[in-house]
Design goal:
Elements: H1 3-20, H2 24-35, H3 39-46, H4 50-58, H5 67-84, H6 90-102, H7 124-138, H8 141-151, H9 156-167, H10 170-179
Helix pairs in contact: 2-4, 3-4, 5-6, 5-7, 7-9, 7-10, 8-9
């Protein structure tokens, strides 16, 4: 790989970090490991072609163009957490992945799919991801930051909200959300 390709890949990964909280290669590898998938199965569940998934993972392509795919990624991340904490079995996870695959990327909070036992209310992380998904489906992180910069002098709290949820990491957004609750 020549220097120009390396720089383009590094830039794409940095954009992925700003849009999705981390490079997609790391995110997708974690989903593959946590959910016991291979790349072809992950691509199928997300509704991507295998070559597109590979390009996103390698940094040849920076952005997931379809908001429904972004929401499927978020649904799989939540599922991986539930598998890890034991609230969803491997068999249930397989059924849930089939539901994610069929989804059109609707709201995570209004999903009619099965929920983990005892999880009647949405988790803070799910609420935060829903907000992030909505903002990121409307504009790219750079545009959201530009909007935040424009708002900052008159409305610093709104500017912070846009920066944290529209271009920040999920963990930072969760901390922000929790700090602004009663």
């Amino acid at each position: 790989m020549d220097t120009a390709q390396q720089e383009a890949t590094a830039r794409a990964r940095e954009l992925q970090r700003s849009w999705y909280g981390e490079p997609l290669g790391a995110l997708f590898r974690r989903l593959i490991d946590d959910l016991g998938l291979n790349q072809a199965r992950l691509a199928a569940v997300l509704g991507l072609s295998a070559p597109m998934l590979s390009q996103l993972m390698s940094g040849q392509r920076a952005k997931i163009g379809n908001p429904a795919v972004v929401q499927r990624v978020q649904a799989l991340q939540e599922l991986a957490v539930q598998v890890a904490d034991g609230s969803v079995s491997a068999a249930e996870a397989t059924d849930r992945m089939d539901e994610v695959k069929k989804s059109q990327g609707g709201s995570v909070l209004t999903s009619t799919g099965p929920t983990a036992p005892g999880s009647g209310a949405p988790t803070v992380r799910r609420v935060v991801r829903e907000i992030q998904s909505l903002l990121r489906s409307v504009a790219a992180a750079g545009d959201i930051i530009d909007a935040a910069d424009s708002l900052a002098p008159a409305h610093p709290e709104l500017a912070e909200f846009l920066r944290v949820y529209g271009a920040g990491r999920t963990a930072d957004a969760v901390a922000h959300y929790e700090s602004h609750q009663n």
